Amino acid sequence: MTVLGQPRRARDMTGQEYCKGCRRAAGMNDVDGGVISLGLHWMVNHYSNNEERFLGWLVVQPIQHRMLMSEMTINESKEFGIMVQRLENALVTTYNASHADDKIEIVYLVRLGESTLVERAEWHLHWHLVPRTSSLKGKCEGWDIVKSRERGLRPAPSRLEIEEQMNLLRHALKSS
User: Fold this and answer.
1) Could you give the CA distance from residue 35 to residue 27 in angstroms, rounded to a whole number?
2) Which candidate, 14, 21, 86, 152, has a CA 20 to 30 Å from the CA of 66?
3) Tens-place pLDDT, residues 137-173
4) Could you tell me whether strands 35-37 and 42-46 are parallel, antiparallel, or unpaired per DSSP bridges?
5) Strand (E) positions, the chain?
6) Which strands sit side by side in the sheet containing 104-110, from one edge to the other?
7) Domain extents for the chain?
8) What is the CATH topology of the domain spanning 10-174?
9) What distance in Å separates the CA atoms of residue 135 and residue 16, rounded to the nearest whole number?
């Protein structure tokens, strides 16, 4: 099943069969909360690493295989800023509405992607949108935000919590 359209089979892919980003865009692997299409060129899902993730941590990526920002098309580049602005607004609005006691104060937008440096990339170009809430202020900020689970500052979200957050996000994005 895929949210982005008809699923592609591995043999139909254009050489990126080892790229998890391409497989996700093709609907070949499921992720808690599903994938949300953000127009013709972008998609977002909840971060899936069970060891690190916490509620609201999103990953946005181009639907097409891109390894470098310089490979993005003009249309992908033009849409990026508007898409991230809409996504941040929807995340902050939906999360804060259901977590009034621990609101998002800032959303970090980070491109790490060490896997893009190897011959057979594990993931293509992608960015993490990582929310820092008021309870983490002074305890886990900036680059350290990704260690908040390791430090016991954030609980692991349940599949149901992720599904609910992504459904709220889906609804907010449709109405924006």
Assistant:
1) 9
2) 86
3) 999 999 899 899 999 999 999 999 999 999 999 999 9
4) antiparallel
5) 35-37, 42-46, 58-62, 104-110, 127-133
6) 35-37, 42-46, 58-62, 127-133, 104-110
7) 10-174
8) HIT family, subunit A (3.30.428)
9) 40
Tokens in use for 56? 């609201």
Tens of pLDDT, residue by residue over 28-84, are 888 999 999 999 999 999 999 998 999 999 999 999 999 889 999 999 999 999 999
How far apart CA 131 and CA 1 sit, in angstroms, is 29
Residues 158, 31 contacting (CB under 8 angstroms): no
Alpha helices in the chain (DSSP H): 20-25, 74-98, 159-174
**Separation in Å, CA 12 to CA 1, 26, 28, 52, 67:** 16, 10, 12, 33, 20
The structure tokens 């043999």 sit at 11
Residue 171: HSE in the Cβ half-sphere, 13 Å Cα cutoff:
9
